[in-house]
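FYI - complex with protoporphyrin IX containing FE, inputs then prediction.
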Amino acid sequence: MLRPKAQAIDLGGKPDLKDPDLYMRDDHHEVFRKLRAQEPVYWNPEADASGFWGITRYADIEAISKNPKLFSSAKANGGHRIFNENDIDGNETDASMISMDPPEHAGYRRMVTPGFVPKRITGMEDRIRERVTRLLDNLPKTGEAEFISAVAAALPIEVLAELFGVPQSDGAKLFEWSNATVGEDDPELRVSDEYMRQCVLEMAGYAAGLWQQRLEKPGEDLISMLAHSKPGGEAMNFPTYIGTFILLVVAGNETTRNSISGGLLALSQNPQERQKLLDDPSLIPSAVQEIVRWVSPVLHMRRTATADTEIRGQRIRKGDKVVMWYASANRDEEAFDDPYRFDVTRYTKPDVPMQLGFGAGQHFCLGSRLAELQLKVLFEELLKRFPDIHVSGPVRRLRSNFISGIKEMPVRYTPER
Ligand code: HEM
């Protein structure tokens, strides 16, 4: 299952939204600002494919997400990424729920929903706090650390291992596979096609072993839910299981990791906002929403038009790719007051629209509550123990048009006595 690398294209001065360097340089917000004002439904040609419509306004993205009949996520129509999932050579994974439409989608989503219901998530809070406490205990006493490996990546991986019911020592493998899966455009992560193939094979072998174990001895974990559920009246086929496993590995950690790191970066760049959280920690849940709005860890999701239609008067043809840029919707001046201001109190005010970082409609992020809980506990403990923690040097960003990610981020803090 080798995802194609994004090929940039020279559009004669117009932006290429597919270009991973745009996001690695963190230049995309200015590009999106202009597009929202001038061409909110923007035709982006592609070097190696048919081209796509780039959608940048909040209201349009919300409406598209809530109309799966007209805007499909189904793998048979191309799926949820800019490249066509059904074109990938040797794709041994079948679609997971994120690349399905109703009514099929609901049956697959229901399989793992018990793992994400509020009671279950709330019940994880004490264990998440213990994990955070241990990670912070282990921060070097020198007062300097690399925050991604020490904290931001470590926490979601530990939580994912708990959800899967696997030993914490398996976390390193899950981390590597997840990086390789989303890192198709980052040469540091997809070292070679051969390496990527090996990762997929290892991941499939690992997932197969778990499936067998849980069939024989079910537990309360997500893998047991998958192995024992019957979405269409029958057990899930193996390729769909592998696709779902990979979805959970990636969705469960890349996004949360990058919200944690992007959140700390935003607090470092806006010390007055950090001070508000220090003075009043009850603002942290509002800050969490603002962090996800600000970071938009998932840059886009794609849909495919199932019939001729129009968006803002622009004709869209059946079969056209429609790419929803959440990173733009979350800075839309028609939706948010002062959208370029990072404001930890924003979500204490009345009538503020939901941030779209978790999407909208029937694919709305299944793990949103779990991600919010991890962010809340992390920032509560971090700011309590290291009130002056701040980013102390340049950050290294992921080269990707899909995940807004940070690979390395040095921090400095006054160590505890
Ligand atoms: C800040 C963290 C997160 C962000 C920003 C995020 C973002 C998103 C977005 C934008 C979608 C919508 C896809 C679409 O409309 O096509 C989505 C779906 C999904 N997310 Fe998350 N996610 C996060 C954390 C998590 C976590 C922690 C998990 C699980 C452990 C998770 C599991 C899923 C799953 C399974 C779906 C597919 C739902 C469906 O197709 O019905 N996510 N996420």
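The pocket of protoporphyrin IX containing FE is lined by residues 65, 73, 80, 97-98, 109, 247-248, 251-252, 255-256, 259, 292, 297-298, 301, 357-359, 363, 365-367, 370-371 (CB under 6 Å). The first helix runs from residue 20 to 24.
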